[in-house]
């Protein structure tokens, strides 16, 4: 049981963070957002996966912009 919790924590920290971000913006639990994505995926035959990937890309770009530009001399 301890291994499952460790794996779950690792996946939640290293995943894109889309559900966590949406949950915090809308004020609902992350698990609930994940369930909605799951239901929407089955209901729309996978088109919500495209939305998820677009949001993940957007959040990733947003994180890089926050860090600022790095030069070759910045280590």
Provide keyphrases for this structure:
75 residues, mainly alpha, 76% helix, 0% strand
Give a quick summary of the entry:
With 75 residues, the protein is mainly alpha-helical. The protein contains 4 helices and no strands. It has helices at 2-14, 18-26, 30-43, 47-67.
Question: In what range is the share of β-strand residues?
Answer: under 5%
Mean pLDDT: 79
Taking the sheet with the most strands, its summary is: none
Q: Which blocks of ≥5 consecutive residues have pLDDT under 50?
A: none
Number of strands: 0
Which bin fits the share of residues in helices? over 70%
Secondary structure category: mainly alpha
User: What general outline do the C-alpha atoms trace?
Assistant: extended
Count of domains: 1
| DSSP helical segment count | 4
State the distance separating the first and last CA atoms.
40 Å
Order of helices and strands: HHHH
Based on CA atoms alone, the radius of gyration comes out at: 16 Å
Description:
The protein has 75 residues and is an all-alpha fold. The protein has one domain. It contains 4 helices and no strands. The chain has helices spanning 2-14, 18-26, 30-43, 47-67. The mean pLDDT is 79.
